[in-house]
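Protein modeling request. Please complete all fields; requests missing the sequence field cannot be processed.
Requester role: graduate student
Desired output: 3D structure, token encoding
Chains: 1
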Amino acid sequence: MRRISSHIWVLLFTLALSVAAQAREEIRFFDAEIRINADASIEVTETITVNAEGREIRRGIFRDIPLRALDEWGLWTTNGFDLVEVLHNGEPSPYNTEWQGRFFRIYIGDADTYISRGEHTYTIRYVTTRQLRFFEGFDELYWNVTGNFWSFPILDAEARVHLPEGAQVLRDQVAAYTGPFGATGGNYQGSILDGGSQVRFSLTRPLGPQEGLTIAVGFTEGAVSPDTGGSALLIWDNIGIFLMIAGWIGVPIYFLWAWNKVGRDPPSPPVIPLFHPPENLSPAALSFAHFNGFRTGHKGVDLPFIAALLSLGVKRLMRIEENSRGTVTLHRGSAAGSTGSVALPAGENALLSTLLANRDEIVLDKHNGPVLKSAVTKLRMAISREYAGRYYNANIGWFIPGILLGVVTYILGIVLQGPPDDGIVYLILPVFTSLFGGGMVVAGRSLFSDPTSGFGSKFAGGILLLVGGAVFLFGLLVSLWGGGFIIYRLAGALLIIGQVAILFSFFLLGAPTEIGAKVLTDIKGFKLYLETAETNRLNMRDAPEMSEELFERFLPYASGLGVEKPWSEAWAAHLARISPDREREYNPSWHSGSSWSSGNLGTATAASVATVSAAMAASMPQPKSSSGSSGGGSSGGGGGGGGGGGW
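Delivered output (647 residues):
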């Protein structure tokens, strides 16, 4: 009895294991009947037998069928799809559908009804188009039978392909692949039936979760008629990338047209030395006109501000005093009481009235920072009101449409296209290229072209220009010769070319007005005189005789143009020729302080200007910082595919 009892327990345990083994959710058989029609459509009937245990499969199953695919260029191709019939255990079944990215999902079952445990058979019949491939000498069906994205194992699967009338299977163009996505396993048997009009494939081992069966069948060329509506649909499916490409072809074309329309400089006379400021421009206004804006000099202080300050000093309306600690104080000048009889330029009047409105002096320190900032703002406003657009047009209005064209087509292109991961990298790369490379080009050009910068700054500017240009070139080379889809590499290259066009247009689209062309040439001639008054003394026969009055009158202009040192050296050389003792005794009336040295007037003048600039910069309020089928396929390839699961 004890031995019999032991055998019973072993039998019960074995049965329990058997039941447990059979109690998993799985696809026990996946059968696919694939019929190719003469019009190139494909009718597919999938019969899927599953075991349901109430875990994932509770109401039924869902089937994901991919209807969007990428061709070798990276373009989306959308397949036609018509769901004909859905059955559950041979009877019509309720179902609902939705899009899951590029997959069309079919939920089979009733959301309010749970199915019983055990075997259930689901049948899905549908017609799809634009799935066949056409090659030189043969046509081909490349079809992912089961899909590679099932969460259940597939114990067995079979696929039968029926060719249209007149088509024959090409025996050397038949293949199948098993395993995970991208695998090339050969766990299948294939046979050609019905005299070559049918092919049958079956598994030789079960498939695990995320594994699938893909088949490839080549057959007689010309047996089916290719879908002629595919070209128009291809364009519509990829309207985003085509829109982006068209837009960024248009960006450089637009800016070239805009430059030809408004950016060409009008004819200007040759530059010859001019011995007086043109059009009676004030020093601050001349600096603004020459640089087409408020160019900053030492310590980031506006050159027009320094020019206006020195001009007030030369006119005896203000005196600049520096003590031994380096503190700079602006005093009301000896001529300040007669300001009513002095016709001051608007910028100088705004500066004087703000700095010394109700006081006799003001110290350039943090305490007076708000007053100094207000003075700079009022000076800028006064000059801008009088001269902005008079001699030079920035043509910003022409710049905006090109930027909008690029930005709008870029954003719409990405939104409408939905690029794949291998393509989006080529659309993001130009953004970083423009931010990084473009930023260095702008900074480098600013340093390199700044007349107040020394050799070190110009050298650094040149390096930045070279590195910024190299960044753009690197991005262009990666786009043209990198890996991945060619359509996105082409778009990336056009984005970079378009951004280079935008960058160049930023510098080239502005142009002098007709009157400005002559005035700006005269300013260059006056600057040439200030820079070379000593070195070309003998060649300037009509130049005025150098004097203290002339030196001080033109010194604010020289400071506004960033050439105060050579102009001061010309004055020093003149004094050395006529009176060496006078050179050592000379001290400007507009300045007194420890930074002045009579040993070298050029260096002393530059140092005095630098001292005032440094004091001004240190006094200004700082912004607060914020914290901060030919054997070349694989499992998962071709049409069909997808996967599914339970719900």
